[in-house]
Amino acid sequence: MKMQEIREMSKEEKLKKLRELELELIRLRTLVRSGGAVENPGQIRLIRKDIARIKTALNEEGFKV
Q1: In angstroms, rounded to a whole number, what is the distance separating the alpha carbons of residues 52 and 25?
Q2: What's the CA gap between 7 and 10, in Å, rounded?
């Protein structure tokens, strides 16, 4: 997800996407810790970066996460 796409989202959409990504990250981390294999190991990194981008955009708007 690119920063421009995130900036075009409304605040509610950003918060919804943030919740979805955090839940997906928890699911993937749980899967890895339980000994399972993730289809794409780099996916965890991409999700973490997307979460950071959304939090950055929210912070730029003056919204505390």
Answers
A1: 12
A2: 8
Residue 64 is given by DSSP the state: -
Q: Which domains does the chain possess?
A: 3-60 (1.10.287.310)
Reported as a single tens digit per residue, the pLDDT across 2-59 is 999 999 999 999 999 999 999 999 999 999 999 888 788 899 999 999 999 999 999 9
The 3-state secondary structure of 6-50, one letter per residue:
HHHCCHHHHHHHHHHHHHHHHHHHHHHHCCCCCCCCHHHHHHHHH
* Amino acid at site 13: E
